[in-house]
Amino acid sequence: MTMCYNAQADEGVHDGTAIHHLPGVPSAEQIAKEGVDLVRMNALLLAKVEELTLYSVGQEKINQQQQAQLDEQQYKIDQLEKLVHQLLEKK
């Protein structure tokens, strides 16, 4: 069985605002009052694990891009420093 989930970006999760549980997941209070369907909960938790995994992979890709950009900027800074030193030595 293949399951596919759409990772839904909830800004509240990412921006640090107060969220007491994952979006789409019943709260502990709600579970205590209403009980829990274990099959549904397992599918829901699996979906959340997949969403977090995909988010993590996306963050790693962004980190790699940022590192490449930093490396390029450092190279340019080093080249500029060399040129400055050469210009100062000619004076």
Automatic annotation (TrEMBL):
It comes from Spirosoma telluris. This is SlyX family protein. Keywords: Coiled coil. Residues 63-90 form a coiled coil.
